[in-house]
Amino acid sequence: MSDHSYVLQGTTGDWEIVVGMEVHAQVASRSKLFSGSATEYGAEPNTQVSLVDAAMPGMLPVINAYCVEQAVRTGLGLNAQINKYSRFDRKNYFYPDLPQGYQISQFQYPIVGEGEIECERDDGSLFTVGIERLHLEQDAGKSIHDLDPNATYVDLNRSGVALMEIVSRPHIRTPDEAAAYMKTLRTIVRYLGTCGGDMEKGQMRADVNVSICRPGQYEKFRADGDFKHLGTRCEIKNVNSMRFIQQAIEYEARRQIDLVEEGGTVQQQTRLFDANKGVTRSMRSKEEAHDYRYFPCPDLLPLEIPQARIDEIKAELPELPADKRKRFVNELGLSEYDASVLAADKDRADYFEVVAAGHDAKIAANWVNNELFGRLNKEDLGITESPVSADQLGKLVDLISTDVISGKIAKDVFEILWDEGGDPAEIVEKRGLKQVTDTGAIESVVDQLISDNPDQVASIEKNPRALGWFVGQVMKAMQGKANPKAVNDILRQKLGL
Amino acid sequence: MTDFLTLSLAEITARLKAREISATEVATVALDAAEASQGALNAFTAFDRSRTLAMAKASDDRLAKGAGGLLEGAPIAVKDLFAVEGVPTTACSHILDGFKPPYESTVTSKLWAEGGVFLGKTNMDEFAMGSSNETSYYGNVINPWRAKGSEAKLTPGGSSGGSAAAVAAHLCYGATGTDTGGSIRQPAAFTGTVGVKATYGRASRWGAVAFASSLDHPGPFAKTVKDAAILMQAMSGHDPKESTSLPLDVPDFVAAAAASVKGKRIGVPKEYRMDGMPAEIETLWQQGVDWLKAAGCEIVDVSLPHTKYALPTYYIINPAEASSNLARYDGMRYGLRVEGQDLTETYEKTRGEGFGHEVQRRILMGTYVLSAGYYDAYYLKALKVRRRILEDFDQAFAQCDALLTPSTPSAAFELGSKSADPISMYLNDIFTVTANIAGVPAMSVPAGLDASGLPLGLQVITPALDEATMFSVGAALEDAAGFSHKPEKWW
Q: Is B131 a catalytic residue?
């Protein structure tokens, strides 16, 4: 922990921060949690609204079983306990974008209980964050305040869309860790196919709880679980990007420290992050907090999931990123770094696995991570938009690993594949790019080079590293098609190195 | 030639089927009678003559082909709580002014699917909150019954007062109601009609304006037990649009209404013998016991020890759910909207003007009992008592097949006599709320008249899903009572 500690200097001494997060993840489902309306993003306002979503008199909710299974799947991906009994409650408050006047949520009995996930910091080190719970709830509609100076417009397309609220334990200690936690969650739900994870489309957003404490206090909290060791928290609502999460925490931590050091006390309150100014502002204090009057929703029966169904879902779960990373290292022999980069995104990992299937995995990883990603980034393309297919790249990897072409030539072939497509072997054949492994041909070039450059030969006896110059010259003479290993071997032998 | 309006549902559908009379003629006469009664009884809130006649014509077409359902051609009135597509559906509240639903409730859909003809929407207490029909935004309904030698206006009971009055006055052959704490059975008792609510979940709540979801039971008003069985049969069945709907086939209620009660064990719960209960009620109850004994039933004394907590429990759960269910009436999407300076004021004005006093009282009570710091003491406690009341029924039904109790503690009272005192109004439901709390079937059967010539009812309660026994016991009481009194027409 000490290696990654985040210590803020104050005028009265050092401070640390403690962060817990509530992440709202939109369930990937074609229809809403309690109605058959579509959930597609970007539809015209109020075109995906059923009688239930608009809370017409006498309308009743019916649970979408697929959303329930998505929540179970997510819970399993968070290594969490699945509650065979859960219940929906009504959270009552008034707002024009909440047609029923209540949100159907799960308050007392969530569908998923305790779990934990392993997250990775930027430096590759790992930390664990406890999950307190995951519950299902419906989203509200959207209020649009800026269309008219005197009126607010309401779009109910989101009204009733299924959300999973994933509540973490306060196990996050730095702004970077908060972002890393969010990234890990996103990777997991994307792997599971339970949430699109697109923060720009509002598919994931976070409420971030921040408090400050003196060094040593957090460890006491972890030892006995008593929140009295920690400071009073403030909740920053609806933060919708990784960068904003970090900025909001940094600002909020400093604000609390300054406040306390000036003799004030932190009041429990809900705050908003103003991304333009980079500050958090008070939204409402504890006294102004809503009394949501939660009570069991009488329109819905308790949710009971048979163990057999949970087991079935578990058996169908895809391999998760942490397991995939381990497999890439242990079975495919990749470096921790390569494995981690590849496993961080399901599409990338899937692409890589095709490239590596039956081919040299290390070369495959190297090519996917460096050449391909580099080129995709340059063109601002996603992996699924790659002009070079995984199958093509796999064949290219084969040509490299069997010494048919050198790595350098392979880059040229890659460019051809990118621009024109085609079969790598055919390209190599047709364009005469095959690498020369005929030692006789290499030897004659080397002999010629040695006799033409007596000065260089003399200097290499003093400085064996100058060998590179000879390699370069041979390659140049042979248009890069010579097998680099053969060139090296022959040069060393002839130069007596 | 309006005699046929006094026929029962079973009788008129038989005549319609025999083509002795046309559905169009029946509908026309019923509509005229219903419209003519409005000035005196105020039982209806909306008619749609062209729809009624179109439905009657369609019935005639089916009847001509020898086809038709259980209710084919019979005009049925609909409590204003049920959505009827394109017809004003307001729950008799100002806040739903002008609301015409673009959908049809499940219960009414089922009635029309069985050939029922929509006659009109009936008046009711606002959002079904009341026991006298006096909280309706459209004015109270007047009971067709009058005390002997008196012209005093009596309540038809509530909340389904309009439906009860419409059936009692022979303006229709049946009507829908909803019973949340007695809102079918109490008005049935006050109007000499049969009122039924089946097991919770038997008839769908979809498309009926929600009052207290866990207590709301749709059900029929009818002239006879057999008619009630037919109507209950028609409106029951699993509805995938309602999560609490029973996913079960509907038993043959009509056959049950004709079944013998010989050997049935009838429980008489001692806790229903209340202090200050009028002697007439006591006498009628004993009469009912004797009738059933004579019909071959065995009488068992049973105990429902938590009965005294039923009304307080009901008045916590009911307003709690109502306060949340009525949150959607915010002036934003439909119904009344009274503009204010800002959002909060718009809410306040809309809800302040849109809801009547009783509705506001329930919302306040409900909000209070669900509030932080009070939830455990009120709402949670009420849920625990609810569990005890359920257990009371389980234990009682281990000893008997049906319970017999009075339906109400009195006959119909004068309008205005209780409206200033909510508690005395709430006490009207003293015998009926337990069945809502437990979700078990219950019905009121007209059993006699009090000294002033006003009808009184007896209540039959049976275990969950056993409507069959309820209908057979109800029919046995009906047979024995031979109740053939009709209100003298003064309207």
A: no
